[in-house]
Structure formats: C-alpha cells, structure tokens
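SEQUENCE-TO-STRUCTURE ENTRY
===========================
Question of interest: how does this chain fold, as expressed in backbone structure tokens?
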Amino acid sequence: MSAKNKNLSEHKAVTTAAASKYKIAIAVSEYNEAITFALRDGAIETLKKYGVKEKNIFVELVPGAYELPLAAKWLYEKKKADAVLALGCVIKGDTDHDIYINNAVSQALMNLSLQTKAPFLFGVVTPNTLQQAKDRAGGKHGNKGVECAVAALKMLELKEKL
C-alpha cells in the first residue's frame, strides 16, 4: 500500500520481552537534515517506547544517503548491533540521481542483511518533493523512522521465535 493511503507510524504493538537487551544502531544522513533528524527522533522514541535502553541505541551521522551502507556496516561491527537503521532522504530532482542512489543504498542494505543475518532497515525517504518528505517525517503520513524501528524490533522478535 502506498504511503498516500497509509500512516507510516500506525502499527501493531511490538510485544518482544527481549527489547531491553537489544543493541540498535542508527546511521543518519546529514543531507536534508530537517527530514532525517525527524526520522532519527521518531526511531529513537519508538525504540525506547518498546523497551530498548537508551544506552543501547547508537547514532552516528554520515554526509549523505550514499554513505549509509558503509556506516551501517561499521556500526554493526563496532557496536555489535542486533539491528541497524539507515535513515536518509533523497528528493527527486532534475536528473535521475535519486534512482541510482536509492537503488544502490537499498541493495547494499539488503546484502548486509543477508550476509550478517541481522536486519539492516532501509529508512530512506524517496519523495518527489520536499512536501512529500515532510509528510513522511512526522507529517500526515507519519514517520518512516518509527516504521523502521518497529520493523527492526519485529524482525528481531521473529529471529528469536524461529
């Protein structure tokens, strides 16, 4: 379902009892920081809401979205993270740069997930306009950072269950 018809922050409650022991890393792009920092704040608030200890949430900034996968890998390795959120915003412009960046980042994060067997979440907002980005960073469509935090917890819950 497209975000046009959905609030990204709406979700079923996460019920994992193990959240207090999870280590969650968050790589955040500085580019479009008005958007990405709102994603970061939503993710952190959600993780804490479901029991992740603040001392177990590790946040690092990177220059742009393209740098997210490498930073995510470093965070995973150095912090021994159970899951990594990669938060960014690539707004469509006059060229196809957004297609190349978004594809590269999403593929790299998927590869990291499969290689490490840990969730690496694609929290990159990929709007056509700044307004669409705002709508997905705490606006009328919720907050993609919240969505990524919930997805990370649900994936860790699934891993424990299996």
